[in-house]
Specification:
Four copies of one chain form a homotetramer.
Chain A lengths: L2 E6 L15 H16 L2 H7 L3 E11 L8 E11 L2 E10 L5 E12 L15
Antiparallel strand pairs in A: 1-3, 2-5, 3-4, 4-5
Chain lengths: 125, 125, 125, 125
């Protein structure tokens, strides 16, 4: 079941055309991943084992503009596609229900020396 | 022939793991596009016709970490794949010559009312 | 009475030392100002009269580090000190009650041609 | 004698009003400090002794707007005002010579446990 991270678009996230800059959506998706780690107590596991999720590939398809004060939700599903841990993010406008953007972020779990680490089953459970 | 935009990685662009945050590479690619518009005098054409390039899809595959003070170059090619104007970015480390990341950014040329606008031939010439 | 804007520190807002980067606090304060404009229906007034608040001086004194997932509140008071509209921001950790930072942002209300505009009484009421 | 750090304003650094966002100037000043550390070989000293410069207070007075492609220079002087190491930054437009902003950043030199560390004479020499 998808994890949901809620946010309100901030004024300084707009670019000179008055809508959210394309790179900011990657920030939103990253924060959704941080929240998942926190919610599932994976954050402590990461710190203890000195693991990090390195982004191997990041892709977002933009469907609609987002503007300041828009109430958004990032819905996230995780899947293991060895060697990747893949996050599927769908960003929706919470007022209209419309999809604003869809993101696919492929990550690798590595230790402090950048050695790949297996993705434990309990990540996805 | 590819356009080249040179930059040095800044300290505040690093994330808590000490390497350039994944979203920052999209900033680098965006600036490469701004520089192309400037170099080809397209910037004035955009302002005069109230046109903007809207990002429809953005994808980066990361090959190597970048760290503070790394000297990078963003090499960019443009291609028309109707209705898109597609930018292919290759980010290289200028000291080692190694590829740091490859990006593909699909954009749409639209006017102020978000009406799609044909991509003039002189964009690519 | 102070306006309160609540936020949770995001992971990508950390710098390479693992705490919130000094410039990000200015983002937090800016968003607190956007929220005030929205709450007081000043946002529409700004758009209609093509007014903007230009920052003339920005200062923050940092008291404590903030880390990812810290629950913060930006408490803001406004005062007119002609020709400035001054915002006093106090950023607190909502769990500990401790002050994280104090900011003073002096702004000028200007129109689209950068001509100073009087600060209406209803801004402060 | 002042250290000089040169930069060109990037398009994504603009806010929705078309000029450089107020917080971005703090980024520029931070990068000027990183460059000083590098130029004076202090960067390695910091890494070896696990020292960091923590910002205790940051202030910028804005004089003129900066826009995309503006060629700026950050001129920086350092002074020891115990317990602080103070950086005075003057940001100028390199084409017009006009001052864009002046910044004063008070920093504390601390070790990894946040214990204050004396500021060596060779920092300033």
């Amino acid at each position: 079941m998808a994890h949901e991270y809620r946010l309100t678009v901030r004024g300084y996230e707009l670019d000179s055309f008055g809508h959210v800059n394309n790179a900011v959506y990657f920030n939103y998706c990253e924060q959704a991943r941080w929240e998942i780690l926190r919610t599932r107590d994976l954050f402590d596991y990461f710190l203890k084992n000195r693991l990090i999720l390195v982004v191997a590939e990041a892709r977002i398809r933009y469907a609609r503009e987002a503007k300041v004060f828009d109430e958004l939700a990032v819905h996230t599903d995780m899947a293991r596609e060895a060697p990747y841990l893949v996050f599927d993010h769908t960003i929706k406008n919470r007022d209209t229900g419309e999809v604003v953007a869809r993101g696919t972020i492929k990550t690798l779990l590595v230790d402090h020396d950048r050695i790949p680490h297996d993705i434990p089953d309990f990540f996805l459970g």
